[in-house]
Protein 1
Amino acid sequence: MSQKITTFLMFEGRAEEAMTFYRSLFADAEVRSLTKYGPEGPGAEGSVTHAVFTLAGQEFMCIDSAVQHGFGFTPAVSLYVDCADEAEIDRLYAALSDGGGVLMALGNHGFSTKFGWVNDRFGVSWQLNLA
């Protein structure tokens, strides 16, 4: 088997909510596997032990950490999306920035005719580019 690299997202209780939200935004999206903590823990009952999902054919993994951490997501690592048209970039920018924060407003920044950078409501950073 050849080596494979997959983006792994660690949440603290909102993994399934994030996965559902992301799947609503991208075509060719599905949950491939999902397991949850039961009453025996160690995480909160019903939170995600481990999940694998795809967005636009790209595979991701996520969990709800059973341990509280002193860190979260940072814009130093972001998900980069080349959008096919203006309607797509506008839709994704609006949805992903809703409840999150804007790092770079959607516009012409010289290196791209239309680009925006946001943190979503879960803290995950997204760079959106009009291809």
Protein 2
Amino acid sequence: MISFHEIPHLSPAWREVLIHRDRISRRPLGINLSDEDTVNESSQRHFVLRDGSHIIAGLISCPPENKTIKLRQMWVHEDQQGNGMGSRLLTEISEQFAREGIERLRLHARVSVRSFYEKCGYLAEGRIFTEVGIPHIIMERQLTR
């Protein structure tokens, strides 16, 4: 059974997620997740999907600014990609933050997955820019209560 959880910073689950983030999001780009990438994470919230005891997807949210939250470092385990887990994670996080009074979610999407985020209700804003060596675009989604 798939379940949605917030996990504490520096917990064993958080440490497990670091391994997934590095393997799935960074190593394919020829870089490693660094201490610089995690330096501010104590002030950020960490969310995952679990299938039993296995963490299969996750993302991080930055502290809110003007009822907007930036999402970052979303990943889905290789065995679960294409099975709707990314969409499920975004749905769960949207519902969570809507209950908390957040009005908008923002993220930097890799251009290669822009259409995925559009299917999840996100709209592109601005120009394409380079982040971690690859093209990205800012995307936002309005939340409703």
